[in-house]
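Severity: low
Component: inverse-folding endpoint
Summary: output formatting inconsistent between runs
Steps to reproduce: submit the following C-alpha cells with default settings.
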C-alpha cells in the first residue's frame, strides 16, 4: 500500500470518528436545550412559549440577555468568538484552522441560555461550531497538518448539519457552499463519511424526527409556476432585508458591551413576543404546523415580519445563537402566507399551503446563506419527493438572483464577519 493511499484511508477513518464525535456533541447540545425547556415550560409542549403569560414573555428574554451579557463581558475577547463566523474566520488564510476548545464550551452554554431564554435564534448555527470544534479537537490531538485539519473541520460541520436535520448530503454541500471548502475527490471522502456517520448516529439514538415534518405533494396546476417565481422574488427581498438590518446593527453596536446589546435584543424580542409569542426560541413547533398546512393566515402573516425583525436584531446585536433555523421559519411563513392567500381566493387545483411553506423554507435558506444547492439538496432529502425539485429550483433560483442583485455574492455569514469592527467580539 503506497503512502498516499494509506494517508487517505487514515483520514477517512478520522472523518468517521469526527462525525460520530460531532453528532454526540450536537445531540448533547439539543438535549440540554430540551431539558431547559422542560424546566421552564412545565406541562407545555417543547418550545411552547405561547403558554407563558405576557409579562413572562417580555421578562424572560430581557433577563436572559442581561445575565448572558454580563457573563460575556467578563470573558476575554477571544473567547467570545462563536458561531459559523468563528469557523469561517479560522478557515481564512494564513491557516488558523484549529478551533479553541474554550470557545466551543462558551458556544455550548451560551446558546443553551439564549435559546431557552426565548431569544429568536437557533441551535443549528451553534451546532456547526460545535461539530467543527469537535473535529478540530481530534486533529489537534493527533497533530495533523493544516490541510488535513481543514478537511476534518469540514467533516465535523457536515456531520452537525446531518445530525440536526437527517440530511447527510446537504451537510456535505453546506461545507462547500457556506464554509467555502474547496472540493477535491480524495479529500472529500472523509467529509461524506462523517456526514453519513452523523445522520446514522442521530437515528440510532432515538432521534426519530431530527428535522422538520413535511408532507410530500406536487404542483396542482401549471399556472402555479408563476406563483413559485413570485414566491422566490418576494423571499429574495426578505433575505436582503434580513441581512441589511443585521449588518447595520452590527456596524453601529459592534463596540458596545454585551450586557447592553444582549439586553436590548431581549427587549425587542420580548416586545414582539407580546403579540406573536411563536417567534420565541427555535420556533420549530409553529414551523411544523405551517409545513403540515395547519396554520391560519391571521397567525402566519405577522410572523413573517416579527420573526425577521427579532432574529435580525438578535444576530446584529451578537446574541450567541444561530440564524439558519430562523431563515427556515421566515421562508416557511412567507410560503404559507402565499399558499393560504391562494386557497382563500378559491382557486382550484392549487397545492396546499404546506407545500408552499416547504418551498419558501428552502428559498429563504438558499438566498440568505448563499447556498442554493444545499437548500435544494435539503429539500429533496427532507421530502423524499422528486416532484418538489422543479418548483423548488424555480423559487430558490429566483430568490438567489434577487438577493445577489442587491447584495452581491457574499453570504450573510461573510457579511457579518466583514462588518465586525477590529478587536470587538465576533458573533
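Observed output (run 2 of 3):
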Amino acid at each position: 500500500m503506497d503512502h498516499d493511499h494509506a494517508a487517505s484511508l487514515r483520514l477517512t477513518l478520522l472523518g468517521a470518528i469526527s462525525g460520530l464525535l460531532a453528532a454526540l456533541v450536537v445531540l448533547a447540545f439539543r438535549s440540554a436545550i430540551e431539558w431547559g425547556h422542560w424546566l421552564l415550560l412545565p406541562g407545555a409542549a417543547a418550545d411552547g412559549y405561547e403558554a407563558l403569560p405576557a409579562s413572562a414573555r417580555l421578562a424572560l428574554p430581557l433577563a436572559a440577555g442581561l445575565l448572558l451579557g454580563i457573563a460575556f463581558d467578563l470573558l476575554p475577547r477571544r473567547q467570545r468568538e462563536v458561531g459559523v463566523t468563528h469557523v469561517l474566520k479560522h478557515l481564512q488564510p494564513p491557516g488558523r484552522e484549529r478551533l479553541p476548545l474554550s470557545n466551543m464550551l462558551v458556544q455550548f452554554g451560551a446558546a443553551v441560555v439564549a435559546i431557552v431564554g426565548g431569544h429568536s435564534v437557533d441551535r443549528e448555527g451553534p451546532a456547526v461550531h460545535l461539530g467543527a470544534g469537535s473535529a478540530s479537537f481530534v486533529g489537534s490531538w493527533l497533530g495533523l497538518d493544516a490541510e488535513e485539519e481543514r478537511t476534518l473541520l469540514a467533516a465535523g460541520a457536515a456531520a452537525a448539519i446531518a445530525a440536526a436535520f437527517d440530511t447527510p448530503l446537504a451537510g456535505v454541500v453546506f461545507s462547500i457552499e457556506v464554509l467555502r471548502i474547496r472540493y477535491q475527490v480524495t479529500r472529500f471522502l472523509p467529509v461524506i463519511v462523517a456526514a453519513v456517520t452523523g445522520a446514522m448516529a442521530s437515528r440510532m439514538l432515538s432521534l426519530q424526527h431530527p428535522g422538520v415534518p413535511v408532507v410530500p405533494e406536487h404542483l396542482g396546476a401549471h399556472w402555479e409556476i408563476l406563483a413559485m417565481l413570485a414566491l422566490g422574488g418576494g423571499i429574495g427581498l426578505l433575505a436582503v432585508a434580513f441581512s441589511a438590518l443585521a449588518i447595520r446593527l452590527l456596524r453601529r453596536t459592534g463596540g458596545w458591551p454585551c450586557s447592553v446589546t444582549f439586553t436590548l435584543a431581549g427587549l425587542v424580542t420580548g416586545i414582539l413576543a407580546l403579540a406573536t409569542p411563536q417567534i420565541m426560541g427555535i420556533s420549530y413547533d409553529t414551523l411544523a404546523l405551517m409545513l403540515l398546512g395547519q396554520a391560519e393566515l391571521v397567525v402566519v402573516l405577522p410572523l413573517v415580519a416579527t420573526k425577521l425583525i427579532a432574529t435580525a436584531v438578535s444576530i446584529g446585536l451578537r446574541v450567541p445563537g444561530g440564524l439558519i433555523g430562523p431563515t427556515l421559519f421566515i421562508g416557511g411563513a412567507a410560503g404559507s402566507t402565499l399558499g393560504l392567500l391562494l386557497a382563500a381566493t378559491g382557486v382550484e387545483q392549487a397545492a396546499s399551503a404546506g407545500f408552499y411553506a416547504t418551498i419558501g423554507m428552502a428559498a429563504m435558506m438558499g438566498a440568505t446563506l448563499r447556498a442554493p444547492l444545499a437548500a435544494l439538496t435539503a429539500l429533496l432529502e427532507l421530502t423524499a419527493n422528486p416532484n418538489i425539485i422543479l418548483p423548488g429550483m424555480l423559487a430558490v433560483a429566483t430568490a438567489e438572483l434577487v438577493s445577489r442583485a442587491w447584495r452581491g455574492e457574499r453570504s450573510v455569514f461573510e457579511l457579518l464577519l466583514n462588518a465586525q469592527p477590529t478587536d470587538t467580539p465576533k458573533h
